[in-house]
Amino acid sequence: MVRESELREGEVAVDMPAPRDAGLVFIGRIRTPWTSRLETPRQGRQDGPVCRLEIFEPWVAAIKGVDFYENLEVIYWLHQSRRDLVLQSPKNNQKTRGTFSLRSPVRPNPIATSIVKFVAIEGNVILVRGLDCLDDTPLLDIKPDRCEFTPLAPPQPGDFQTE
Question: H or E segment at 54?
Answer without folding.
Answer: strand 50-55
